[in-house]
Amino acid sequence: MNLSRIFILRPVATSLLMVAVLIAGLLAYRLLPISALPEVDYPTIQVTTLYPGASPDVMTSNVTAPLERQLGQMPGLSQMSSTSSGGASVITLRFALDMAMDVAEQQVQAAINAGANLLPSDLPMPPLYSKVNPADAPILTLAITSPSLPVIRVNDLVENRLAPKLSQVNGVGLVAIAGGRRPAVRIQANPTALAGLGMTLDDVRTAIAAANVKQAKGGFDGPARASTIDANDQLQSAAEYRNLIIAFKNGLPVRLSDIAQTVDDAENTRLAAWAGTPEGGSRAGVILNIRRQPGANVIETVDRIKALLPQLKETLPASLDVQVLTDRTVTIRASVNDMQLELMLAIALVVAVIFVFLRSASATLIPSFAVPLSLIGTFGVMYLAGFSINNLTLMALTISTGFVVDDAIVMIENIARFVEKGEPPMQAALKGARQIGFTIISLTISLIAVLIPLLFMGDVVGRLFHEFAITMAVAILISAVVSLTLTPMLCARLLRHQPEGVQEERHGRLYHATGRFFDRTIAGYGRILTWVLDRRGLTWIVFLATLAVTVLLYFAVPKGFFPDQDTGTIQATTEADQSISFAAMAERQQALAELLLKDPAVQSISSFIGVDGSNTTLNTGRLLIDLKPHGQRDGVPAVLRRLSDDALQIPGIRLYAQPVQDLTIEDRVARTQYQLLMSSPDMAQLAKSTQALVERMHDLPELVDVGSDLQDQGLQAFVQIDRAQASRLGVTVSAIDTALYNAFGQRLISTIFTQSNQYRVVLEVAPQFKVGPEALQSIYVASSAGAPVPLSSVATVSERPMALAVNHVGQLPAATISFNTAPGVSLGHAVKAVQDLMAQLRTEGHMPLSVDAAFQGAALAFQASLSNTLLLVLAAVITMYIVLGVLYESTIHPVTILSTLPSAGVGALLALLLAGLDLDIIAIIGIVLLIGIVKKNAIMMIDFAIEARRTGLNAHDAIRRACLLRFRPIMMTTAAAMLGALPLALGTGIGSELRRPLGVAIVGGLLLSQLVTLYTTPVIYLYMERFSDWLAARRERRALEHARADRAA
User: Fold this and answer.
1) Nearest C-alpha neighbor of 355 from the set 367, 344, 346
2) Residue ranges of the chain whose pLDDT lies below 70
3) Which one of 147, 533, 654, 681 has the minimum C-beta count within 10 Å?
4) What is the pTM of this model?
């Protein structure tokens, strides 16, 4: 059956069909979104509750625990982690990959509502949730500064005019205002002056709450006119509060200005942010960190924001400077552009190879149509499948150039052979297409079969390579269709037979030189092949040796998870002493930022400190460092080492920096790239085991930057209440708590409502009364007996250590140990070292079974991928065997074809080892693809050998003839596949670290397997044929014996 016949005979219909495919592909290309990687985010939601003045203990028990109980019951929740610190509770919820974000969002809102009645009644605002992964770096960072306006005013403008509009942009999950000093009226009371008047801070609070109101008052409706009632019931500014009479004593009014200072200041004075560039230095301002929703396309979201920004800038005063500090899309676009260039280069190289082999411009023209057509046609299917143009889909297309051209080469080479024999082009095309049609179909089906296991990979990695596998499968399918339709039709029209004499005249010296070279090469190959076929035992030894070396190399090659990308952005966490004050932390953070700005690679830095939704303790700060363009600086690892060394110059603060990655598997912000999670119901045991493990991990040479988030050395002023004495003096415990909160908690006691926003009135004692625990001497508590009672008469104060933050995972106390791998150490070796250490600690009794330890994020995904690696390769081999068995209706031939695989494995692993690359997910995909490419050579040989056997040749002559006949197309297809992967292996542009392992594995595998399989495959074929003949003879003997037995019976 000749599938190509109708297309060869109807050139117009075939051409128009191909033009239709081309147009559809080009239209789809313009509509395809661009991204760094396929969308693989876990649906993640963060619930933040702020309660100024509350200790970590109060936040844990009164806010986090009630919410966790409700949130922990949601179906589809895969992990819940929380951090409770002074004044903030942050709960991160990660749902199953297949959970719809909208459904997760509804569940979270319902759970918050259910837990609301258990939360403190004086929470300034209810828990807020945002659809954002806290471990994901902001996609865009804006710095808003002003040379003339104070930061509080800048913040007000940003919060009212900029942030709400940016939050509305499709794809934005959260617009976080760092250093957000919201305007407020602060009342700084003098507790001693109040006590002299027989009053307490609670009296001030009650008086202000009663004096500042804004509520409905009704209206009049007379016979002719109607009017609404309003009053001067609300006090708007600090000046208006000063004259407020809060009580009468001895007939004289006590005004607020008599007992307190009233100032217009920030609602939370313990927040600060700075933006810095090497030219302008570091300036205080407001930082807008714009985070995307999980699943949103980064480039589209940033484009929408940038289109809106000029319009929003017009609504702001001219003295406000809005500057883009970090833009994640710059490197994504550059890396996709680089990838597209590499794709073009691959196409050009592949076409050049064909020209060198076929030595004919008209014959080269045919694959020059077929390759771009197959790739462009793929864009149409990608668009329909909802894919994007990203590094992985472009990698799939680049590697496909080598595969796609194979089908065209095989078809052209076969038809060209008949043309060279002197047959008319039309006849040659019909004959050649019929002869090779089955080979092309079997090549295509067996190649797609290799990709099937990729579709069944689980979790994030599976999602990641889903697009890769489908894109490649579609390109290969379209290429097979083009090779069975357009290619033979063009061959019938473009290939011409040149008689010998004419050829001599028309072609130049180069043509003849290459011709002689190919003839000599084939003759040389024939001589070596004859020698090899006579010494089959030696070939078997070579084959078995490659098999053994493959296994050895697999264990020798260092293992990794995903290549570290250089995205031009570094995310850093700073940490100071656990009892540091806000002012001291601000000084150190600024000094560090100023120092880092001097580094030649740094373009800008945004930094912030203070407790908010993204930074949970006072002794930690955040930095986002934007680096100069790729060509103007060193690679990220070198820059990171330099910055870490520089940071050591600033005493009292540590820097933990890591490069921002496009693939974020974590759902918690950690100081380093890899984490180990410890959890236990017993908090004391957890702290002990964690410290023991961290100390021992410091000694491991495989690890650097080891640290834990266990912060239990903060200072606590503990107020020991004498309950009996308090009762005697008419003082309740509630009154003591209230007095302390009024004095030291930045308590929000009233709200000023305006048409654009709501501002708070904050009550506290004057700054000089809150320097240290001795200030408690001046605090008085309301008493039912009449006059206020000094706090010192009913309580004593002592200082003791406390936890700065309480971490939970799955409602159990937890601690995260973070670490990086030492330079030159693979993740596999690091994970193994940590596992061995934990086993040792368990046997020594330092880590009881009640303490659970498990890797998190990338380290956990690495463990899962490691167990799947061999299964994936095995699945690819089994799928291949089944498909080949079905195609050849034989259980023997597939074994011959699959015998080519060990040499490819050796080549790939050896190339990775020499290039200093880890065997990571990308390299594994390369090896899986090799299984598909390498077996093509064997298929071509075996197909022709089977056909030659049908003409009556013996196995030895048949395979020898097949090898020599198919030598040219085998060399062409291998060279094409290798040159398709070469730009990936040698690329040095942005994002090249992601592509190199794939290119190196394929090029290395092809080089070695090509050398080995040209000789081992024929030998194995002969042995398999002999085995097949033996089986057939045995079956015949048995049949004869049965027949004799039947006759005798």
Assistant:
1) 367
2) 1, 497-512, 1049
3) 147
4) 0.86
